[in-house]
Specification:
By secondary structure, the protein is mostly helical. It is built from 8 helices and no strands. The N and C termini lie close together (11 Å).
Length: 110
């Protein structure tokens, strides 16, 4: 969730603003910063983060962030999408394309 959040904000070229908002978003996705219950840190594995609630939270974050950009897809977002995703989003308004790109499996894949 942390890497997804940072990547999404950077891809949209959004100003950082209040970092507490991003920390809250990461916490809602299940990874509260500095609050890991064990001293070895958060697990960085597919199994730890691939669950329906986590995917829903990431998709909602992407949709909210995309709605705030008001811009067309940036180069970084376009490069992360498969041709199938690009064709599905071709008829959408710019804000909707950004939202859908950030919520897409293509963008969430590392």
């Amino acid at each position: 969730p942390y890497q997804y959040t940072v990547s999404a904000v950077r891809a949209c070229a959004m100003p950082l603003g209040d970092p507490r908002q991003l920390a809250g978003a990461v916490a809602r996705m299940g990874m509260p910063i500095f609050l890991c219950p064990t001293p070895d840190g958060w697990r960085d594995s597919r199994e730890a983060w691939l669950n329906p609630e986590g995917l829903r939270q990431r998709a909602e974050f992407g949709i909210r962030l995309g709605g705030q950009t008001g811009a067309a897809l940036t180069d970084a977002l376009s490069a992360s999408l498969s041709t199938g995703s690009q064709s599905v989003m071709a008829g959408l308004a710019p804000k909707e394309r950004v939202s859908m790109a950030l919520a897409s499996p293509d963008f969430m894949r590392r």
